[in-house]
Write a structure and sequence with these properties.
Blueprint lengths: L1 H27 L1 H4 L4 H9 L5 H11 L5 H14 L1 E4 L4 E4 L6 E2 L4 E2 H36 L4 H15 L2 H15 L16 H34 L3 H8 L4 H29 L3 H7 L4 H10 L3 H29 L7
Antiparallel strand pairs: 1-2, 3-4
Helix pairs in contact: 1-14, 3-4, 6-7, 6-9, 6-11, 7-9, 8-9, 8-12, 9-11, 10-11, 11-14, 12-13, 13-14
C-alpha cells in the first residue's frame, strides 16, 4: 500500500510540473509562435496610447525579452520564494506563493485568489455532497425497481437535468424562489462560514440545489447502469444464496463494485468546480474564482487568468490523486497496479 501511495504522489508532482509548463507555454510561447513580439505583449499593461519607448521599457521590466526557459524558471522560482516586479515607479514584492502580479490593478494575484476561494469552495463542497448522495441514491433505487414508475420518472427528470444549462435553471430558480416567493437568499448573497454557519447555508442553498440538479442527473444514470450490470453478476447470486440480507447484498457487494466510475467522475467534477464554477457563480452573482476569471478575461489581465488556470489545474491533479488513493480502498486489486 505504501509503495502504491508513493508512486501516485510522485506521479501527481510530475503532472503538476507538466501542467504548469504547458499552461505557461499557452500564455507566453503560443503568442510568440503566432507572431506576437515582446512589445505587443507589453501593450496590454501600458495601454495603446503609450509611446514606443514606454512599451519597450515595460517589456524589459517584465522580462519578455528573456528566453522562454528563463521566464518559466523565474515564474517557478516566484511560486516557491516570491518575486519582485518593477512596474515603472517602484518595485513590488510578491510573497510566495507568487502566481503572478497584475500590472493593471498593481496587486499580486495570490491574495485575490485566497479572497475568492472560500466562495467557490463553499459552493463546490455543498453542491457535491447533495448531488453525490441524491444521484447515487436515486440511481440505486431505479436499478432495483427497473421498469417501475419511479424508475421512468427518475430517469426522465435526470434527462431534463442533464439537458438544461445551468444559466437557465439558475436564473429561473432565482426568479421563482428568491424574488417571487422569497424563500431563499437573493443573488450575490454570501456569508463566510466562520461568521454564521446558518446564514452561510441559507445564502448558498439555492445555488447548491441548482448545481446539484445538473450533476446528480448524470450520477443517477451512471449509478443505475452500473448497478444493473453488477446485480446480475455471479458473486451477487452467491451472496444471496448465502442468505445475506438484501441491504448487505446491495450496499456492500453491489454498490461497492459499481462505485469505481462514480469515484472517477466525482473527483474530476469536484476538481473542476474548485477551479471556478463560472456559469453558476455568474448566474447567482457569487464572487468566486469563476467570476474572477471572467472579470480577468474581460480586462485582458493575463496574470490573473494564468493564476486561476494554474490553481484550477492544481485542484484537478489533487482530486485525481485522491481518486487514485480511494481506488485502493474500494478495490484492493488496484494496489498492485
Amino acid at each position: 500500500m505504501i509503495t502504491y501511495v508513493v508512486r501516485r504522489l510522485l506521479a501527481a508532482v510530475l503532472l503538476l510540473f507538466i501542467v504548469s509548463a504547458v499552461t505557461f507555454s499557452i500564455f507566453f510561447v503560443v503568442p510568440r509562435i503566432i507572431g506576437s513580439s515582446p512589445e505587443t505583449m507589453a501593450v496590454r499593461y501600458v495601454g495603446r496610447t503609450a509611446t514606443p519607448e514606454t512599451v519597450h521599457l515595460t517589456a524589459e521590466r517584465l522580462g519578455f525579452y528573456d528566453p522562454i526557459v528563463v521566464q518559466y524558471g523565474n515564474w517557478v522560482k516566484g511560486v516557491f520564494v516570491g518575486a519582485d516586479y518593477d512596474y515603472g515607479v517602484g518595485v513590488e514584492h510578491c510573497n510566495a506563493p507568487c502566481l503572478g502580479y497584475s500590472f493593471i490593478t498593481r496587486q499580486p494575484v495570490w491574495p485575490d485568489l485566497l479572497d475568492r476561494a472560500p466562495v467557490t469552495l463553499s459552493l463546490a463542497v455543498g453542491a457535491s455532497v447533495i448531488w453525490l448522495i441524491g444521484g447515487v441514491s436515486i440511481g440505486v433505487l431505479s436499478a432495483l425497481r427497473k421498469g417501475s414508475f419511479f424508475d421512468r420518472l427518475a430517469m426522465g427528470v435526470a434527462l431534463g437535468g442533464v439537458s438544461l444549462p445551468i444559466f437557465y435553471t439558475g436564473l429561473m430558480t432565482l426568479a421563482i424562489f428568491s424574488y417571487s416567493l422569497d424563500w431563499t437568499a437573493k443573488g450575490g448573497s454570501f456569508t463566510p462560514f466562520q461568521e454564521n454557519p446558518a446564514e452561510w447555508a441559507y445564502d448558498l442553498l439555492l445555488p447548491w440545489i441548482t448545481l446539484a440538479f445538473l450533476f446528480s442527473a448524470g450520477y443517477a444514470r451512471l449509478t443505475r447502469a452500473g448497478m444493473l450490470e453488477t446485480m446480475g453478476e455471479d458473486f451477487i447470486r452467491t451472496a444471496r444464496a448465502k442468505g445475506l440480507p438484501q441491504r448487505t447484498v446491495v450496499v456492500k457487494h453491489g454498490l461497492r463494485s459499481a462505485l469505481t466510475p462514480i469515484v472517477t467522475i466525482f473527483g474530476l467534477d469536484v476538481g473542476l468546480l474548485l477551479g471556478g464554477a463560472v456559469l453558476t457563480e455568474s448566474a447567482f452573482g457569487l464572487n468566486g474564482l469563476g467570476k474572477y476569471a471572467v472579470e480577468a478575461i474581460r480586462a485582458n489581465d493575463l496574470p490573473k487568468v494564468m493564476g486561476v488556470t494554474i490553481l484550477a489545474a492544481f485542484f484537478v491533479v489533487i482530486a485525481n490523486l485522491i481518486v487514485d488513493l480511494l481506488y485502493a480502498v474500494i478495490d484492493p486489486r488496484v494496489r498492485t497496479a
